[in-house]
Each structure stands twice: as C-alpha cells, then as structure tokens.
Amino acid sequence: MIEQRGHTPVYLNITSPTVNDVVDARHLRLEADATYVFDKGYCDYGWWQQIDEAGATFVTRFKRNAAIQVVAQNPCDGKVILSDEWVEFRHRSNRAGHKNGYHGLRLRRISVYREGKSPLILATNDMDSSAKDIAELYRKRWQIELFFKWLKQNLKLKRFLGKSQNAVSLQIYAAIISYLLLWLY
Fold first, then answer.
1. What's the pLDDT tens digit per position in 6-49?
2. How far apart are CA 49 and CA 104, in angstroms?
3. Contacts made by residues 66-75, CB under 8 angstroms, sequence distance 24+
4. Which among 11, 32, 54, 154 is least surrounded, fewest beta carbons within 10 Å?
C-alpha cells in the first residue's frame, strides 16, 4: 500500500503467489477517514463493507457482471463523466452462495470516458465528492504500478539471487529499503 501524498510505501506483505491479494487486504487495519483505492482484483463485497464500517471510503471498479440496479442518477457533464448513479445490489448472495454484505446499501457507479477504449466503470461508497475527483483518485492509483516498475528497473528485481522463499523475501525487502533511502535522500 502506498500513501498517495508522499508516494511512500506504508504496508508490504510478501505472500505465496497462490494467495489472492484481497485475502491479505482483509487483514489490514483500516483507518477512519482514509480513502482506499484499488483495482477490481480486490472485488470482495464483504471487505468493501468492512471499509465502510470503519468510516473510510473506497474507489474501485465494478466487475462486468455485477448485478446492480440504478436507484438514482446525478447530473454529469456527459464528456468526461458519462454517468453518475446511485446503485444497489440486486441479490443477497452471489451464485456460489457467499453473502453480499453490501446488499441493501447504496454505492455510486461512475462511468468515465476513455479515448479509444470502453468507459471505465468505477464503484465507490463516497457519496459526497464530485465524480471528477473520484475518477482522478482512481487515475492516481496507477502510481503503485509505476512504483513496482521503478523497483524492477532500478533495483534489479527482475532476477532473484536465491530461490528459497527467504532469499526472495530478503531481496524484495532490501529493494524497498533502498527505495526508501533514495527517496529520503
């Protein structure tokens, strides 16, 4: 996890490649009044509910097949923001029978224009900020991808010196420490 203002890592956990990222995210200590921005790989309605109950907000993407219904529409410019809607989930549980903690609660679905691509469909529990501000928060999420790219290019994380879990972890931690020292310098 990266703190947006300083582009500094604030949380790092190395797990097995078979562990989904959202499994680790469920164990984060959530802070009230924080905004968590993540990609749709973290789609877990129960976790979204935990974020909401902690007094924090989130911005992410809906999955294409999310069963939602529009409750209300907010005005939008139709150029950058194609739609800004309040939505609710239609079902109490998904096809696998997992309970949807967000059933009956409102979310916002914001559709953002992207040149030459299909619109970006964002999901958030932030009902107060402007749709453009929310879209900008999601755009800034790209900073974490750039951070990993920088680590790989500059701190030699393309190839690992050892093959054991401990050797790989130590090399990643050394790279993060190097990044932080360079950033402080």
1. 666 777 778 777 888 788 788 888 889 989 888 887 788 888 88
2. 11
3. 66/123, 67/91, 68/107, 68/109, 70/109, 71/106, 74/108, 74/131
4. 32
Question: Is 150 in a helix, a strand, or coil?
Answer: helix
Q: What are phi and psi of 91, to 5 degrees?
A: -115, 145
Taking the C-alpha atoms of residue 111 and residue 48, their distance in angstroms, rounded to an integer, is 19
Structure tokens given for 109? 């679905």
- Asked if residue 68 lies in contact with residue 109, where contact means CB atoms within 8 angstroms, the answer is yes
Distance CA 95, CA 124 (A): 23
Largest CA distance in the chain: 56
DSSP 17: T
Structure tokens at 96: 């696998």
pLDDT in tens, 127-144: 999 999 999 999 888 877
DSSP structural state of residue 11 = -
Name the β-bridge partners of 59: 37, 124
Residues 6+ apart with CB under 8 A from 183: 7, 8
Q: Give the CA dihedral 92, 111, 81, 77, nearest 10 degrees.
A: -70
Amino acid residing at 182? L
Angle of the 131-140 helix axis to the 142-154 helix axis, nearest 10? 10
